[in-house]
Automatic annotation (TrEMBL):
Active site positions: 333
Iron-sulfur keyword on record: no
Lineage of the organism: Bacteria, Pseudomonadati, Pseudomonadota, Alphaproteobacteria, Sphingomonadales
Pfam families: Pepdidase_M14_N, Peptidase_M14
Alphabetical list of InterPro entries matching this protein: Cytosolic_carboxypeptidase, Pepdidase_M14_N, Peptidase_M14
BP terms from Gene Ontology: proteolysis
Organism: Stakelama tenebrarum
Alphabetized GO MF terms: metallocarboxypeptidase activity; zinc ion binding
Cofactors that this protein relies on: Zn(2+)
UniProt family annotation: Belongs to the peptidase M14 family.
Name the UniProt record assigns to this protein: Carboxypeptidase family protein
Amino acid sequence: MSIQICAAFDSGNIRLVGIEGDRVDLEIVKDHQSDFYQWFHFRASGAKGKTVTFRIVNAGGSAYAFGWPGYRTRVSIDRQLWRMTDTDYTDGVLTFTHRFDSDIAWFAYFAPYSMERHHDLVSRIALMPGVSHRELGRTLDDQPLDCLTIGTGEKQVWLYARQHPGESMAEWWMEGALEKLTDPADTAAKALREKATLHIVPNANPDGSRRGHLRTNAAGVNLNREWHAPTAEKSPEVLAIRNAMDETGCAFAMDVHGDEAIPANFLAGFEGIPSWTDAQGEKYYEFGRRLTAATPLFQLEQGYDKAAPGKANLSMSTNQVAERFGAVAMTLEMPFKDHDPSPDAEQGWSPDRCKQLAHACLDTLAGFVDDL
């Protein structure tokens, strides 16, 4: 039996170039109507008893090729546990190997979070006491944009994730956050629900997620460059979320993402917005300091450069929300690589640790919400 490659499923992305013996050459498919690509997710079968070498031959042209060095591919035989496998990046080709002791193995850029799991999560959490669900709108592929609201407090908090659909770690974080917020035995969650009303969008880009995109929606649009002027034709997801924010107001916002290159968790803020004040900025910095003290899964040393005064990009959500509402807004970035300050040699940065970080973020917010 010959080796079979398939990516015709929710969030799948790969194109077979050729098979020669135990070597499989592949290409990542570009996002629809876009030049972005980097996310891959496929299954291989028919190779039991063999060690197969996979080569992604167009990795050098991907959106963030500078992120490949030091990266390790995730592999699973049961679609539950995702381990890292030996990976090399040389001369624009990403190469990884796997010994097939099973009939089927699955490979991905990061542990996938399917739209079916998304609907399971939304349905499960919506049944919990004190939770309400609403559909903020529909996507271009006519998928629902789900929002779960928890809490009765005065402070309006918005948490939203996966504007970039290939950053699946963002929805693993959301699963952890929603489980904590609905845990009746969690005292920090109880305090937060009493002091804040939390509006949570677990997946802001369902179309890109299902299509297997890295960074864009069904129209090939990067949603995190649409917050200054979203439209129903190109970016209905952002339009729906921003309109809902306009209705409620926003004191605190966290936009959850993944980063290709930096092997650590970090925050990006809103330096450079026109209305910047040191008082607003200090609240953002204080949240980061408290989060660092709360967990070894977060650090302050590595991160993005700060925008110069007056030079913030207001098409990005964190900047737009901070400017629009005076909110303490931030982008949380998690790695596709491992978290080098606290590494895991087997799984790297993993779904379980995404959820642990979500718990720490909410514990920190519970102790911080009075200062907003």
